[in-house]
Design a protein that fits this description.
Number of strands: 0
Shape: flat
Order of helices and strands: HHHH
Distance between the termini: 32 Å
Structural class: mainly alpha
Number of domains: 1
Number of helices: 4
Radius of gyration: 14 Å
């Protein structure tokens, strides 16, 4: 599964890099969806990596996902959840 996820990650990341959209462009949301998929694949790889789960990597993955998802779910107050991830961790 991890090997397959790396292939998916490479394809999604390449699509993201090939998308020239900048914030405010019509295609910006699509580029952000690709970035969200990229971060979800990172989370998948973190969860299944050999040697067990590293809380610091998990925290970083979730933070990135919440940051990107915030623009799709502005009413969800994801900034508060992001803040809580790092309380007493730094």
């Amino acid at each position: 599964m991890l090997a397959q996820s790396r292939l998916f990650h490479d394809r999604v990341e390449q699509e993201y890099l090939n998308n020239p959209a900048a914030k405010g462009d019509d295609d910006w949301q699509e580029k952000q969806r690709l970035l969200l998929a990229d971060m979800a694949l990172h989370l998948f790889q973190t969860a299944l990596r050999p040697g067990g789960l590293r809380p610091d990597k998990l925290r970083n993955n979730i933070y990135a996902i919440l940051t990107i998802a915030d623009q799709f779910l502005p009413e969800a107050d994801l900034a508060t959840a992001k803040e809580k991830l790092f309380n007493n961790q730094r």
